[in-house]
Amino acid sequence: MDTQREATLNPEHDLIAALQRRDQAALATLFERYADKIYRLGVSILHDEQQADGVVQNTFLALIKHADSFQGRSSVGTWLYRVGYNECMMRLRSVRPDYELDALPEADTMPATFVDWNTVPDQVIGSAEASSEMERAIASLKHDLRVVFVLRDIEGLSTEETAQTLGITAGAVKVRLHRARLALREKLAAYFEERVRS
Fold this sequence. Notes:
single chain, 198 residues, Arc Repressor Mutant, subunit A, 2 domains, elongated
């Protein structure tokens, strides 16, 4: 009965156990659950849809290859994000070997422009044009800030899950997220200020 109760409480454990038995349905379930998320992570880091497809493929090949050794110290989602992130970093290094992977800004900078978001009409914020502007602003963030913003605010990972994925401390995640949000506010302020005036 305890075993049945544990299985009910931990369906992810059941999926991993099924995957270790080479159950194709378990792999399909995990793929359906996480492939799009890993793809979005890949696109946000590499800015290349074809490369992002390769990241997804290699991430799930790694899952198949290492399923037997998966010990469940983190969730399978966090593990997949970590593998996907490492795959992205490997691809970046092969293109730019001198790429700084962990360069944080030396100090916080206060945005030069502020806008009161409460004055921006909902139809402006929700427009396709605003979404495109937001995507451009996110893409222009420095890599270390962008990846934290994507994992926390777009993919919805917790601070701890993001820290595990990136191999950094929870404190570093909070600092980078704060800086990413500040940078985005500044990048988008002029755009929305103009729309509020008109």
